[in-house]
Amino acid sequence: MSTAASGRILIDLFMTLDGVAQGPGGTDEDTSGGFRFSGWQAGHPSSGVGPEVEKGMRQLDALLLGRRTYDIFASYWPHHTEGESGEIGTLFNRVPKYVATRDADFALDWEGSTRVGDDLSAEIAAMRENHREVHVIGSVDFVHTLLAEGLFDELNLWVYPILLGAGKKVFDDGALPSVLTLLEPAKTDDGGVTLLRYGRTEKVPEVGTFD
């Protein structure tokens, strides 16, 4: 782990073209609010997502998750450390896991898990001191908090050419007005899935009028 205060917070999300990030991976992942399309990502195979996800995990040395995503990961990854997904499973089991919840009694049965949320700004500052890359995966409700408070460094979006209409969206009305910078050219695979990597800046949107 790095001892310099240079660690970064990266948000990794799968989302539809209309911004829905709810329940991408399985039919029973998140059906809250009557959501009918849980599992939409699994229903649209992509040749490019897997290699890019693995590439993005190479520097990961901590996870920061919302409660629902933590429960899903904790029930799955400890049992998947071999085979095709074994490398990621081994990594997730090894690194520290920070779980955002104000419930002091929330069960943290996955080894290496710690609760955060009492003072998120200070806790994330501590993560930057102790880790090189902290990845927030899924956790769309928690992501709203990070976007509202500007507590992230990089936003990685895998955008699928799907329209769902209803569902939890990445950006709500609480997002902090800000200007992001594209870190690399967009990458699109043969299924039409596009990877967009944005970095946070301290710039705010300016307004004007076209003559």
UniProtKB/TrEMBL annotation:
Signal peptide: none annotated. Gene3D superfamilies: Dihydrofolate Reductase, subunit A. Residues 22-52 are annotated as: Disordered. Residues 9-184 form the Bacterial bifunctional deaminase-reductase C-terminal domain. It comes from the Bacteria. This is Dihydrofolate reductase family protein.
